[in-house]
Amino acid sequence: MRLTRINKQILLSFLLTLFLGVSINAQKKSFTIVIDAGHGGKDSGARGVVEDEKHIVLDVSLRLGKMIEKEFKDVQVVYTRKTDVFLELWERTQIANHHHANLFVSIHCNSATNRSAYGTETFVMGLSRSNETMDVAKRENSVILLEDNQEKYQKFDPNDPEAVIAFEIMFSAFKDQSLDYARLVEEEFVKNGRSSRGVKQSNFHVLRTNGSPAVLVELGFISNQDEGNFLGSELGKRKATESLFEAFKKFKKEYDRKNGITGEEEVKPKEVEKPVAGKTFKIQILVSKNKYGPSAKQLNGLTGVEVVQFGDVFKYYYGNTNLASERDDLLAYAIRKGFKDAFVAEFINNEKLEGNQNYRIQFLASNKKYRDRDNKFGGLKNVLRVKQGNMHLYFYGSTKTYEQAQKDLKLAQDKGFKSAIIVTFDGEKLIDESAKK
């Protein structure tokens, strides 16, 4: 059986890349990971309910690289892109082959016309007859239509026995290592509470000519309302990054073991960051005389925003942490989301309001006057009603500490009052003038 000219060219090119990569990696001490943020520039990738794919994956890619650079001094991190630019698929694999990568990780987000689809999945190069995996490959490969020179991509025919033989020779060298990292990634996603759709094989251009262990990670379906909101949030990006990083730590440890790397090159245990004693940090993103709902466009897609009313103004806070590193990450993310004047607000734990001031939870506003027996309060007791113009405002609880006010707020939200907010009072009267925390 004779290989066709095209298959010979592909096979010889791959074997040359493999030979050079093995030779150079044998001489160098460092481990090289190439992190590929999918799409970019004129190619937005999948459209998300909160944020587009190209922005989410770039954010996660930069976070992942930063974490690896900080903890692994013997690892060289190479990015295919660090800004919102367009790269052709062949350029991405060329970067990996040029640097003789020990691991190539292409990061993406999934999308489907079925809005209920959700879950992570990680792909390695392989032959698959599954319609589902073929659909994913077609979508990720469709970027070729945006490229100037499409003739450079050799067509692969899975029904051609000669092509299949060439294909299997090419990818047998790194298949096991690719599968190892893919499995580790999905295991870490599950540990972080995500739903895994498993490890799969498919024919991705960005993996096909890679002379290294290579995977394509789908972080989740940003077409799904819940998963799209999660991956568009600071928490979602951080959790996704942590999963990829923990998988890398295990992959690198096994790589070192197999290559006899010990001593100073071993990874040192990461020091656990200590909380800042007695303080809680939030990011104040906005002050307005208008009250905005959780999905208001003025919040720029941020989720979990906390609203506190001080007199006639509303202050909007994002995030909640007692760790300095998370505080800085939250601030940077808020600024990237368009809140250029955002700043860190420090709250002293269990600090009490002065005099008769107290926090209450406004959970309902209506032009009707309700009483307990009307069953409009969701089981909340000791409700205070305040008439303001033609409206009746209903408040639950009374506390002098912000921590207890947050607990009261959560209780009201769990009762179904999702738009409830924290309001400051002087005794049983609303504070008329703006107060500063």
TrEMBL record:
It comes from Moheibacter lacus. It catalyses: Hydrolyzes the link between N-acetylmuramoyl residues and L-amino acid residues in certain cell-wall glycopeptides. SUPFAM superfamilies: Zn-dependent exopeptidases. The keyword Hydrolase applies. Keywords: Hydrolase. It is an enzyme of class 3 (hydrolase). GO terms for cellular component: outer membrane-bounded periplasmic space. GO terms for molecular function: N-acetylmuramoyl-L-alanine amidase activity. Residues 93-249 form the MurNAc-LAA domain. This is N-acetylmuramoyl-L-alanine amidase. PANTHER family: N-ACETYLMURAMOYL-L-ALANINE AMIDASE (PTHR30404), N-ACETYLMURAMOYL-L-ALANINE AMIDASE AMIC (PTHR30404:SF0). It holds the Pfam family Amidase_3. The keyword Hydrolase applies. GO terms for biological process: peptidoglycan catabolic process. InterPro entries: MurNAc-LAA_cat, N-acetylmuramoyl_amidase_3. SMART domains: Ami_3 (SM00646). Its EC number is 3.5.1.28.
